[in-house]
Amino acid sequence: MASIDIFVPDIGDFDEVTVIELMVKVGDTVKADQSLITVESDKASMEIPSSHAGVVKEIKVKLGDKVKQGSPVVVLEGEGAGAAPAPVAAPAPAAAAAPATVSVPNVPAAPVAIAQAAPVSVAASAPAAAVPAHEPTALALNLPHASPSVRKFARELGVPLNEVKGSGLKGRITDADVQAFTRSVMSGAVQTVAGAAQNKATGGGDGAGLGLIPWPKVDFAKFGPIERKELSRIKKISGANLLRNAIMIPAVTNHDDADITDLEAFRVSTNKENEKSGVKVTMLAFLIKACVAALKKFPEFNSSLDGDALIYKQFYHIGFAADTPNGLMVPVIKDADKKGIMQISVEMGELAKKARDGKLSPAEMTGASFTISSLGGIGGRYFTPIINAPEVAILGVCKSSMQPVWDGKAFVPRLMLPLSLTWDHRVIDGAAAARFNVYLGQILGDFRRVLL
Ligand code: CAO
After folding, report:
1. Nearest C-alpha to atom 32 of ligand 1 is from which residue?
2. How much distance in Å is there from the Cα of 350 to the middle of ligand 1?
3. CB-neighbour burial class of residue 423 (10 A; exposed 0-12, middle 13-18, buried 19+)
């Protein structure tokens, strides 16, 4: 039985490329032209196909190895080893007659460029296996179209790209397609072929079918001094919730700016007048009140999904994210629609203090129908807050700043507040989200509108 060494063929302009995927294992039967490994340069990824058919006897590379033209990839063995269908420049090995290993350096198996971030010339010396640069994989291997970064992303998530429907030009798969596929699998709406087979075999449905690759395990001490500290209890709990919410909710964030010049002037003068009372009114209190008005106008933002139905809440309990030494907590202002700005400010101060002291009761942290996360006292422009399930939207607020705003005749300095509204696309559409932000901006621009 003949053995054949398969080498990395001419890969064009690259001196060295990294092995990022092993597509076969020892014992696998491979056909000629079947991809063996994927290599990646800083510009493109390519699959290195086998020039011959046979059974994989040995794999000569491992993930992360640097290879170049002529590097050994695998050793094949078998009756058919040496019978390449494509015309090859290398001498045809005398399969049956040659028991010794037949080394075929530079076997002209064309590397298949998966996709190219920049024009890359992938020289292929086997004309029959060479594929046009613009449609490489689809022709050669019937693989889906996707850029190297999308393929990398899919590999990291363990997403089978050939099961993902591409929404890009000519069906090209985008990052968003991979994310949407992952969410569908997580929510149970879609099963991967492998997952379905596994569930069929095990009778299970626990999401094991996701087939995610393991988390990278790195010995950081190899690179410098380290210290290991356990996560706080709150971080552990909130982390699990955040992960579920981030993965399972098809979330989108709309950013907008609200002109709060007049409102801030009013807030400052109110605080001056009330200096002796000890109650400080913050922008967040106005935001809570403005959000209640917007939630009343757009009730789906104050709802929760229950299977195929929506639960519309007729109460307005607003959670606000509070930064505490132990991690993020979300106390809730109950019945914010029935409370004035002063009362909300007082309650917020008390709840934020309790949160920092670790003294919030479960009742003070539950029942929110909408949440606001304000980083306004710290800084930043915009961010993408994660929805606090089972709510369907969350408003992120950053630090206001003076901006030149065109008033129709001239640029005038206005105090602008950056808003970031994240919403669940299963419940809310982009147009509704844009309207919510516009309405919120109108209220913050002229607070008298709350009364309308
Ligand atoms: N733009 C500009 N300045 C703002 C502002 C805004 N949007 N919001 C607040 N400020 C100012 C306040 O006016 C105050 O200034 P003065 O001391 O001069 O009056 C200062 O920033 C501090 O405000 P604050 O943050 O203490 O008060 P608050 O009511 O805005 O917020 C609370 C209270 C509990 C929300 C806040 O302390 C907090 O914890 N924020 C972090 C929330 C968080 O971590 N979110 C991220 C969640 S995702 O990980």
Report:
1. 322
2. 14
3. buried
- Which residue's CA is minimally distant from atom 11 of ligand 1? 377
What is the rounded average pLDDT for all residues in the chain? Answer: 81
Final residue in a domain of this structure, among 247, 278, 307: 247
Number of domains the chain is built from: 3
Please identify, by atom number, the ligand 1 atom nearest to the C-alpha of residue 397. 7
Of 28, 31, 54, 32, the C-alpha closest to 107 is 32
Candidate ranges 180-184, 215-219, 429-433; pick with highest mean pLDDT: 429-433
What is the distance in A from the centroid of ligand 1 to the CA of 399? 8
Distance 282 CA to ligand 1 centre (A): 8
Measuring from atom 34 of ligand 1, which residue has the nearest CA? 322
User: Is the confidence at residue 158, as pLDDT, over 90?
Assistant: no
Give 43 Cα–ligand 1 centroid separation in angstroms. Answer: 44
Does 101 reside within a domain?
Answer: no
pTM of the prediction? Answer: 0.60
pLDDT in tens, 248-304: 999 999 999 999 999 999 999 999 998 888 899 999 999 999 999 999 999 999 999
Domain contains 358? yes
Look up residue 146 and give its DSSP letter. B
User: What does the pLDDT look like over 6-16, one tens digit per residue?
Assistant: 999 888 767 88
Give yes or no: residues 276 and 420 share one domain.
Answer: yes
* Minimal-distance CA residue to ligand 1 atom 35: 322
- What is the residue range of 299's domain? 249-451
Has residue 145 been placed in a domain?
A: yes
Whole-number Å distance between alpha carbons of 59 and 47: 15
Atom from ligand 1 closest to the CA of residue 355? 34
Residue 89 belongs to some domain of the structure: no
Strand duo 66-67 + 303-306: pairing: unpaired
Residues marked active site are found at 425
Q: Which of 247, 277, 312 is the last residue of a domain?
A: 247
CA angle 172, 429, 318 (to 5 degrees): 130
Q: Do 67 and 124 reside in the same domain of the chain?
A: no
Among the listed residues 149, 119, 90, 106, the one whose alpha carbon sits nearest the alpha carbon of residue 13 = 119
Which is the closest atom of ligand 1 to the Cα of 385?
48
